[in-house]
Each structure stands twice: as C-alpha cells, then as structure tokens.
Amino acid sequence: MKNFLAMTLLVPLLLGSFRAKADVAVTDERIKEERLSFQSFAPWSPRTHLNADVAMVYGIDKTLPERLETWRQHGYRVEVMTGASWGEYQDYLYGRFDGINHEDEAQTDRNGNKVGHGRDVYYMSPGEAYGRFLSVGVKRALDAGAQAIYLEEPEFWVRSGYEPHFKSEWKAYYGDEWQPLYSSPDAQYRASKLKYYLYRRALSQVFDFVHQYSQQTGRQIACYVPTHSLINYAHWGIVSPESSLLDVGCDGYIAQVWTGTARTPNVYEGREKERTFETAFLEYGAMQNLARASGRRVWYLNDPVEDNPNHSWTDYRMNWQNTLVASLLQPEVSRYEIMPWPDRIFNGTYPIKDVSQRKPGEAVQKEPIPHDYETVLQSVISALGDMKQPSNAVRWEWSGTRGVGVLVSDTMMFQRGEPTPSDPHLGSFYGLAMPLLKHGVPVEPVQIESATKPGFLQNYRVLLLTYEGQKPPTPEFHRALAQWVRNGGALVIIDTDKDPYNSVHDWWNKAPLAYQTPLQHLLETLGLAQNATGTFPVGKGVVLRAMLSPAAMTYRPDGATQVRALVQQAATAIKMPWQAANALVLRRGPYVVAAGLDESVDGAPSPILHGHFINLFDANLAVLTQVPVTPNQRLLMVDVDAFRDRQPHIIAAACRVRDVKVTRREMSFHTDGIAATQAVICIALPRAPKTVEADGKPVAPADYDYVNGILRLQFPNSPDGISIIIRR
C-alpha cells in the first residue's frame, strides 16, 4: 500500500483532541483474538472511529507515541506497522543514525536510477546496519506501548541490484565478483537469491531484537509481516522472502491483497483483461496456504478504495466487493485488516467519472464517499468480526471439484528479469490455475517450500506442476511429492522442459547430481524416464506429463480447455469425481458468500438461492427471498432463517454493537459508529416492539419497521455511543 503513505508523510501532522471513553474497554472475546484491524498514520478522529479491535499505527518517527495514544484512549489495542524496505528513513540514509552515509544502499537499476517513491524515499538494499536502524525505531514503538510489531513489504525489485552495496554483499555471499544481472540467467537467478537473503537477514535482526525485548520486559510481543502474495510479487517483478519468514521469527502475515494487486491484467483464452475476483481468489489462497503449514496467524486485507486515486467510487466499490468476496471464499481464515488508511476513505474525494469514462482534457470533478457506501462498509465490517465459525457450520453449496492445487515456489520471483524474456502476464502460473477456477474449481496455490512438512500434501488429490518460470528449491521436495503420488495422488506436469533457467547453477546440476534440468530429477524420482510423456501409474497414484507450455497456452483460445482435459483425465485415473460449475457459493454459519463466474461453463444453469436473506451490500439491508447468482455477481448475505428459533438477536448492523442484554420484556444494547454516517440495524424479534428508545428518547415509528420477524432500525451513527432499549 504505497502511494498514499508516500503522500501523507510529506504533510504536517495535525493531532486532534480526544477523550477517554470508559464504555469501550477491551473485554469481549473477539477483541482478545484480534480479529479485525486497520492501519493509519493519522491520529483518531470521529470520521475514522472504526468497528475494529486493533489500530496499527504507522511509522516509527518521533510523533509516534502521541499518535498511538489517541487510538489507545479510544479503546483500541495499539500495535505499530512500519515499512521494511522504505520509509522516511533519511536519518539512516545520510548518516545521522551511525555517522556513516548509506546512500549506496538505495536500490538502483542498470541505468543508475534509484528506485523509490520520489524525493529521497528509496527502496533499500539492506545492510546489517539497516537492521539495527529499524530495531532502534521499533524500540521507540515498544517503549510507547505497542503490543505487536508489523514490518511490511520487504521488497527488492528485480530491476534493482546495481547499487554499490549490493555488489559488496554479492562478494561476501558468493565469494566471487558481482555480475551484471542482465548478463545471464544464472546471474539474474543468483542476484534474486541474494535479494531474498538480505531481507530475510534484516527482518531476522528486528525479530530477534523484539523477542529479546519481550523477555526483558515480560511482555508478549508478536512480530508480523504484511506482504503481497507470491503471485503478485512475481507478476510485478519483486523479490521478497515470502515462505522463509516463518523460520526466522515471524508470527504470521497480513495478506496484502487489494484492488491494486488483483486488477493487474492477465491472459485467458487469448484475451488480456482485468480479472479482479479470480486474481484475488488465487492471491488470498496462496497466503492461506503459506500460513496453514505453520498454524500461525494470517489476516486478509480488504481496501474500499486503492492506491490509484484516478478511479471513481463506482469502480472502487465494485472491485472492493470482488476482493472481499474472494477473501471470504477462503474459509480457514477469519481475521481481517478491514482497510488501510481510513482517512483517505472517509475524508478523501475521488473522481465522479472513472478514468475510462473521461474525455481527453475533460476536467476532473471529485466527490466524497457516497453515504450508502459508508453504511455498507460498516455493515460488512460487523459481519467480518463474526466470521469465525465452527468447521461443521462451513460448507460449499455450489462449486466444482475440490482438492485441486497448483504447486508454486518462492523461486517464481527469481525468473522475472533480464536477460531472458518472461511472459509479462505470469502465464506459467495463470495458465494452470485460471482454467480450473473459471469452471468453479476452488483451486489453491500450494507452496512447494512447505511440501516436505508431514501431512501437508494430504489436503490435495490432484496437483499441477510446471518448472516453467520457477524451480524446486531442494531435492527433498521431489521425494515428498513422489511419496504423495505413490499414496494415491494425481500429478499433472505441464512443461516443455526448455526454460532457459534450467541452466542456472543449482542443486540438480551440481555434484554428485548431474541432471540438465530439475524435471529430469523429478521424473527419475518417480521411477519414470527422464523424458517421459503420457500417463503413468505410480504406486496407487498417477503421473500425467504433457509437453506443453502453460504460458503459451494462455494465448490460445483452446488452451484452457486442454488444461482442464488433462486434469480431468488425471482425476479419472484415481477415480476422483469431476464436476464443473459457473459459480462459487459458500456457507459460513449464517453467512452466504457467492460469486458468479464469467468466461465459464457454457449453457450451465446458475444457482438460485431461496429463503430469506439480508444483502449486506445493500445499505438498506433489505430482505430478499430469491437470489440468482449470475455471472460477475458478488454477494455477501445473512440467512435470516438461521435466527428464527433463537431469542432476540442482532443479525446485521452498520455500526458497532456492545453490551447486548435480553430479558423477557426488553432488549438493550450500546452502539457507536463513524460520525456523519447512517446506522442500520436488523434484529430478529418474535413479535413487534411496543417502543424503541435511543438515549432515553422515543424513536419515531418512521425510523423503524417490523416485517416478517425482522425489526429494522435506522439512526445517525455517533462515535460517542448511543444506548438503545427495545421494549416488547
């Protein structure tokens, strides 16, 4: 989340007044579990009074303690986030930190251009002193009371690596002289390995410091890394130590997936376009898979706008729904960063017309956030805090075959630069994943680095693999994969074995091994010939190898059909039923999450949901009785019928609701919300209320209605809190 912070760091900090509120003490179970969070550089304000548990206060400058205190005084758990690879770190850059000028650590491309955010805010090529500098800033945050530390986006651009510091690190790491990255695939691959190591080292330094601080103070302080997905980093040309961070002290991740990453165009059946929902689904899935192997925490980021300020509210809202629904279709995750930079959402203005609708030279007119979008955001945030459901309350109601994965490695980031051309649309990955997802198969990226952990591959019955665009980091992966096949798995290998990066100096061509390509080693480990093509039984499982390029297949109108046919053939060989679908519908307790798919199964019927549902994307929280799931439709709904047999219960709320009490004669609770927004609450009641009061005053009948057992109450939100009493 880059551009907004780069702007806000340049403006004066205006700290508003605040007052402590005794009625927002952090006591409920949800807050103890830290399910909802957001990040902000600005102090608390009535317009950013969010229904969340954690305020991640951004930056480690000298204003941090005062800004942090404004959020603490309003009842939030206070944690601190700062950039791992860039920030307002001029004290380090110019030697004010340790007396040594570190401008040679600014990432630089082959033309001598420093890579950064304008002025002197650069991406860093981190030396060991940089880790010490970050630790000093983090100590400032811990001394101010930060309860957790987030080091976001450890990023080394593929086009960087020409700065003097990187050349010296190369000599120290490899023992030979630096080579221009464009000179050979081996030079590019080795450079990416080193970039990966340097940020792994820097973060390890900070994590070690935080853990020592925890021991000395007796405080439990966790360390997290907010990071883009492996899929996006590879697509954008960035190297980051994704999967290895869990081994150097990272306690979990925030999956930074939002419109800005997910709208990156890809190619499917020869057509290049934005596929925001599908891309987000795969990005979130990659991050879920990464964290699952360790059992550590992962949050999913959603952003109601994005870093690009040139789109309209209509565009932002549509794509927020795309990414939100994609995240909710990953049922193992129930923690969310509900938004970054709330100040730019609730106080910002954006074009009335989208950039694609404006004529050349047309003046750009802007407007603040629409009132109904403010209400919808608060309704959805309340629901996100309730997404932790028991496993027996989660089920797929409409989807294609499950248990299918595409194997991915961190090395996917190592093959995205000069000298060899790589598909700019990351077709080596999307060529395998997109054909399945478009036909309703909830395919998951499966982290190769985790595959050797006991039981990790047992969740999958079919796995797709290519070494086009990535390489296996160790031979142990091949042994684990071969054992999975022998136990009954179906492995589909789609690879011409002609990737130029097969020639890089790595384990498969180093003594005592002497393979020209890693695929040769895998096939031999499976008991097959090194050039085997076709279908082969291996133990209880099957291997299907096709001499095809996944990236090339994305440009062919029939490429996706061919991929699906190969996967279905492999599934049939292990007697796995195969099913396609043109929609995904998942039930999470009382919530129904749905996405209709375009470019999908021709002529297949769309699901129609029957019952009584509240559409949380509708500011009025209207009740629907019949909901078709059509192509490109996104839905997040509450099933009203799930509450019919309960005592009076709040089932949807565009505000925060606390201290709910129910007696035979009345129901009472407190609400608070964002200033100058509209609250809407839906309550399941067995009979109509006699009276409704807000802060001791009668609520006019025009401000509520009671239909089919649902009381719908509307009133202006207040960050100071409102007491509601419903007498029955």
Named CATH architecture of the largest domain: Alpha-Beta Barrel
What is the tally of beta strands?
Answer: 35
Q: What's the pLDDT, averaged over the residues?
A: 94
Q: Looking at the chains present, what oligomeric state does this protein adopt?
A: single chain
Q: What share of residues are in beta strands?
A: 15-25%
Q: CATH first level of the largest domain: which class?
A: Alpha Beta
First and last CA, distance: 48 Å
Helix content: 25-40%
Give a structural overview.
The protein has 728 residues and is of the alpha/beta class. The protein has three domains: 3-391, Glycosidases (TIM Barrel); 398-573, 3-Layer(aba) Sandwich (Rossmann fold); 649-727. Helices cover 27% and strands 24% of the residues. It contains 18 helices and 35 strands. Strands 1-2-3-4-6-8-11-12 form an eight-stranded parallel barrel, surrounded by four helices. α5 (128-143) packs parallel to α7. Mean pLDDT is 94; it is low at 3-28.
Task: Provide keyphrases for this structure.
single chain, 728 residues, alpha/beta, TIM Barrel, Rossmann fold, 3 domains, eight-stranded parallel beta barrel, six-stranded antiparallel β-sheet, 18 helices, 24% strand, disordered N terminus
